[in-house]
Amino acid sequence: MSIKVRYFASLKESLGSDGVELFVTEPLTVEQTWSQATGQVGLPDNILVAVNMVYVDQTVEITDGDEVAFFPPVTGG
Amino acid sequence: MSIKVRYFASLKESLGSDGVELFVTEPLTVEQTWSQATGQVGLPDNILVAVNMVYVDQTVEITDGDEVAFFPPVTGG
Amino acid sequence: MRLLFSPRLLEVEVVIKLLAEAFDPFEEVKRFQEQSVGSACAVGATSIFIGTMRDFNDGDPVVSMFLEYYPGMTERQLKDIVAEAIGQWAVLNVLVVHRVGDISPGDPIVVVAVETSHRGDAFDACRFIMEALKSKAPFWKKEQLKSQKSRWVGNNSKGYAPE
Amino acid sequence: MRLLFSPRLLEVEVVIKLLAEAFDPFEEVKRFQEQSVGSACAVGATSIFIGTMRDFNDGDPVVSMFLEYYPGMTERQLKDIVAEAIGQWAVLNVLVVHRVGDISPGDPIVVVAVETSHRGDAFDACRFIMEALKSKAPFWKKEQLKSQKSRWVGNNSKGYAPE
């Protein structure tokens, strides 16, 4: 299974990457996705998570073909 | 003493006049002003009263040089 | 007729106009912004309300309208309303333009523009000015209906589509 | 870049645009009004909000700004926000224009215009869209300060002048 992980804004800068593609054998939790993508244990506070461009809470299951985005609070407008 | 009375909008139409100048010997109440100006007893419901272009309640005393305006609810904007 | 006040109440640029002819609300706002450039880069938020004449009211087609006002008192009320808004919110600039006389459907009747640093102040002050104008400024609308009848509008509504 | 949606959600004309270059908010609203003339004389109220880049923030002079977004998700969030407003108020037409990329002080960042028959719906829907955009639409501002430093804006404020 392939999962596309993306980072934006200050998170992209601090991780030094705009994302990564994960290849896994079974569905992941949001936190597992974060850890596998970044090598960091535990999701930072205040981070927003979207799966396939829709906001999700962290209980959602990430599965094949999903695009998972992690980003800081939005500041548009 | 001279008091200038003015009517606007539907009130001006129904009275057939845009106002009248009253000459009186002592201050009037709002209701007395209305009665002397129009010959009608009692102020109609829902009428607004301004003295010298400021809204007043009907307890105010009308005196020399005042401009008293009677008009229906406003409908601008 | 064109009345202009710039009282610089508390350093706020205020323009209030009554116009007897059709106007372009955006041209009015642009002209206003050009003359209040002093605060240009402090302005973070602009809330603009435009009231336009509709071609129906209370279920009846309306072909034209006459807007009567009380010269002197109308301007004074508008000034007082704007001053009250300035006292209540952190406002940089305020424009109020209101049409009088004969009006056709589609014509702008009123424009209120409020410039502030932050959006909450702009939204609140603009809405306050409109609601106060609707309830206090001496203007009266007489509608000419398609049926040839005419009628004075009795009361301003609360501002929502009827249920 | 120029993205255009006219989904005619419930017969409502909706235009959502992301622009990478400076724009004139009034030209955008005028162009929008010209293409939604079907409802022209039903429009009684237009509420417009313009957000503009200020030349200071959090006490520091700002010389420029970069606005990052999430292509695809940003448009989708804006569409969902507008759809929610349409479900909640009696709305005729909605325009949302948002800038992305490099921005200078004085440049408009966002314009929201809501046309309705009655003013309460226009005010409420416009403000709702702005607040939802501020809290949900994936945009991020990076400020270039006069001091040569740059910083990501941490959070959108509640929208009022600081005490």
Keywords:
heterotetramer; A: 77 residues; alpha+beta; Ubiquitin-like (UB roll); 5-stranded mixed beta sheet; two-stranded antiparallel sheet; C: 163 residues; Aldehyde Oxidoreductase, domain 3; 5-stranded antiparallel beta sheet; 4-stranded mixed beta sheet; 3 helices; elongated; disordered N terminus
Characterize the structure shown:
The complex is a heterotetramer, with 2 copies of chain A (77 residues) and 2 copies of chain C (163 residues). With 77 residues, chain A is an alpha+beta fold. Chain A has one domain: Beta-grasp domain (Ubiquitin-like (UB roll)). Helices cover 21% and strands 34% of the residues of chain A. Chain A has a 5-stranded mixed beta sheet. Chain A has a two-stranded antiparallel ribbon with strand order 3-6. In chain A, a hairpin with a 2-residue loop joins β4 and β5. Chain A starts with a strand and ends in a 6-residue tail after the last strand. Chain C has 3 helices and 9 strands. In chain C, the strands form 2 sheets. In chain C, strands 3, 4, 6, 8 and 9 form a 5-stranded antiparallel beta sheet that branches. A 4-stranded mixed beta sheet of chain C has the order 1-5-7-2, sandwiched between helices. Chain C is elongated, with a radius of gyration of 16 Å. The N terminus of chain C is likely disordered. Chains C and D meet through α1, β2 and α3 of C and α1, β2 and α3 of D. β2 of chain C pairs antiparallel with β2 of chain D, so a sheet runs across the interface.
